[in-house]
Each structure stands twice: as structure tokens, then as C-alpha cells.
Amino acid sequence: MTRAVDLGAAFDLLKAVPMPAVAAAVVTPNGILREEYLGVASLDTNELLTANHAFDLASLTKVLVTLPEVLRLLERGRLSLQDPLSLHLPEAGWMVEPSVGTAKIAHLLAHTSGLPAWAPLYTHPTDRATLLARVLQTPLEAAPGERLLYSDLGFMLLGLLTERLTGRALDELAEERGFVTYRPSGPTVATERCPWRGRVLNGEVHDENAYALGGVSGHAGAFGTLRDVARAAQAWLTDLVSEPTRSLVARPWSHEANGCPRGLGWILGHPTCSGGDLASPQAFGHTGFTGTSVWIEPQRGYAVVLLTNRVHPTRHTGDDIIHLRRRFANAVHAALGRGV
């Protein structure tokens, strides 16, 4: 039985934040413990935020779509973490040396493949296959396994790998999972007034490269309501993957410059992480550029979800999202103590 807890102090922190829209939830294996919706979905319309509004999840796509699909392939014996990428994508890096084809699946998941963080693919408009072919020939900035370099490009290739091995598109796989979607059909939360596209983005992906890839990519592109993300977090607390797989994912595979450890896909609990200095060492989480985050405490038995549209109407807001994430997570940890 879930014990009674007072999360009021944690949720009170959200009442004065500068973001137009804020949605937050604390989730247990049995469902949502508390949820709250504050603000407006768009400053242009002043439409009140509701449980039906989907947020652009940005890089949460990496851990809510791509990572689970790669792990499903792993558990089904379709690939190994030690497989070089070229075993499954033989065209990977054949034009360059050193080649991303030599990077192992584990390197890509742990952001140690050596690929650069980003590339302006959207400035070379062409079809999706050609853009991904360009990523496959991107020169490495370090040898695989040499150092951590958080890379959107690596998760683009993991998305492509998933599509190649399953024979299905990522958006189809996401729909089958039933948590988040690349094609929101209901109301959505506005993000940035994009100079490149000449409009306020609402219902279309904020990430420029994901947009150039048709809105569907392994690194970004997914949308979800607070309850969608809460259900995905709940699945990570319960039976999304086997316990041995979850333990494998949540052990340190690399470390950021500030000492924060990274697992496979996820950031791991550490005093410097966005999950707060009260997060347990067993915790894992992730953030998204649009103002989203999720932190999961498997041993304590709860997860913390915080969704905002901090980039609306511009990314240059000085909103201090890092501080907000830590304060909210710490307040939840303090309220729940050792768990629920």
C-alpha cells in the first residue's frame, strides 16, 4: 500500500516559474500519485493547459522511444551491445577513417561513439534517407570508447538501426508501445517562434534536424501528454524491460566532465545531476531541450516527471530550467524519503 505523503511543498515550487506551461507528476508502480497543470499552452491564444495537451519531448525521445526499442532487440537476441554498428549497417562510415562503423552499440547508447554532438543537417534540405546517409559518413571526433560526447547523431543512427532490424518505422513502433507519439492528434503546447520556419511551432517538432528528417528520428520528435510520459515512467518502474536489462542500463558506462555518470541512454543519479542531490545512486533520468525531464527511482519506487515549454516564445529566456528541475526533484525526494 502506498503510504500517505505530502507533496504540497514540491508542487508549490511550480506556481511562480516563468515558463508559460508547466505540467508535473509523481508516479509510482501503481500509477500517478499527484499531477498538476499550470499556465497556458500558448501565449498567442492564452489557452489553458490541460491534461490533454501534448508536449514536444525533445531528447526524451532517446530514452522513451529509441532506447526501449534497442533493448527489445537486445533481449530478443537480435543484437549484442558489443556488436560494431557496421555489422548491422554495413554502409556505416565506409567513406571515412576512423569510422563510426567500428563503434559498438554500447558506445552509441553511452554517448562514447566519438561522433560529434550535432550537425546542421537541416541546412542541407533533402530526403530523409540522404540525410541519414550523411550522418553515417560523419567523421569521428574521438576514437570509440575514448571519451563521452553527448551526441544527437548517435541516436539518429540507433533509430535507423532499429528501423533496419525491425523493418518498421520508429513512429509505428512508438504507436505500438502506446506511450508517446510522433504524430500528435490532440491539442499541443507551443514551443518557439522559429525564424527558419517563419512561425510559432505548435504540433510540429522543435528540433530542426528532426524536422528535416520528417519529424521522426531516434534523437527527437516524440510528443506526449503528462500522463503519457507518466505511463512510460511507470513502465520503467515495472516491466518494460527485465531486471537484468534494467541493471545493465543503469550502471555507469561513462562519466561527464562534472563527474555525473551515464548509463545506457540515461543519466545516472549524482549530486550534480538534474535529478537533484537527493537522488539515489540507483536513479536514472533524462532531460529535453524544450524543457522536459523525467527521473526514475527504481529502488525507492517512484518517478518524477516535469514538462515545460521553456522555449516559448524563444529559447533565450534565462529561465534557469536546470535549477528548477533540481529544486522540484529534491522537494519530491524530501517528501518521499526512502520511497513510497
TrEMBL record:
Q: Which domain of life is it from?
A: Bacteria
- Say yes or no: keyword Hydrolase present: yes
**What keywords are assigned to this protein?**
Hydrolase
Q: Which InterPro entries match?
A: Beta-lactam-related, Beta-lactam/transpept-like, Diverse_Enzym_Activities
Give one GO molecular function term: hydrolase activity
Limits of the Beta-lactamase-related domain: 19-318
Q: Which Gene3D superfamilies match?
A: DD-peptidase/beta-lactamase superfamily (3.40.710.10)
Keyword Hydrolase on entry? yes
Residue ranges annotated as transmembrane are none
How is this protein named in the record? CubicO group peptidase (Beta-lactamase class C family)
